[in-house]
Amino acid sequence: MKRFSFFLPILLHQILFAAEIAPAILSTELLNPVSDVTSEQKAIRGIHLTAWVSGSKKYRAKLDHLLKTSVINSVIIDIKEYEGEVYLPGVKATEKIGAYTRAVPDMAEWVADLKKRGVYTVARIVVFKDNIFPRKTPSAAVKNPQGGVWQDRNNIAWIDPYSVEGWRYNTAIAVEAARMGFDEIQFDYIRFPTDGALSQMRFIKPYSKSQASEALVGFLKHARQALKPLGVKISIDVFGLTTSDNTGMGIGQLIRPMAEQVDYVCPMIYPSHYAPGEYGIAIPNDQPYKVVSYALRDAIKNLGPEARQKLRPYFQDFSLPRAGIRYRAKEVEAQIQAAADQGIFSWNLWNARASYTHEALRHPVIPKSSVVVSVGVSTQTDSSLPGTSVDISTTTK
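and the corresponding structure tokens:
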């Protein structure tokens, strides 16, 4: 087992990144390059559901009401979580190690019913953070120096991202979800660990920025090859900061090579998760419009012309204690508005309890008229976009 060499602490990276970007004048960009009605009509607007609420008849009644009275047209259903539990029947590998949990007894029938009603169904799979498979299959686990299973700060085990054995296990689950009829497979936690005794981690191969990225891309290639004959779409969840950062941040997530392997990229742009000073914003939690605007601007720049069709960001519909203001309809709407003003109409909402702000979802968001962010001197600086100059007649909120 080769020794783990170095991981860049995420918090330190965020502080350095914020200090670097804060004084910079932003490159020329259209905050709202188009008002594309066709894109809006085809948009996928989803909400995350745990397996346990998905199996509840009481919750399904609430969900049906939300689907009928809001812009939501997609659900992201957990079929594998980081505890290692798998909520999908029929996968021999999961049943063999006792990972299958019958949280949704009628999963296949319910998915079929949702699809009949025009709801786009997504199966979410937590990939490398897994507290069952690596314990049952130590050869696929991130190890500690003694050769045992390494654990993060919450005592959760991880699959070694270099492990082909781990790739096959997660891919088998994805294949079964595709056969069941899900429209899309969404891979989450497709990264290296970020917390715990990171210096004690031991991998199959020595860690490096390039090899870490290659491991994640390798898994995606493996999964894509297996899923392609089934005609299912593939998406990935990545850290929000990957849209602006190209270092891999010590977790292997380089957004461009990962994006090349999938149909959709879902950066988790949760303002509450950005460090103070990020993008020159003192308290990012309190400025959802600005944070989303900056993050998506950089994503479009990094991914190229097709980015608007490939991006489906996650926004927060929750509040973190002590992060700043509480999130209600206004804050949820601000994130959706920022995306629309960038020409991005597809998005997902996250709430760990699957409790969503109906008031923010009643009507489609209409993009504002184009706002050009330019370099150099202008007649007015928009206070909502620090360090930039804009036409004062079309300032954003």
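(Above: one complete record from the training split.) Confidence is low (pLDDT under 50) at residues 1-38, 371-397.
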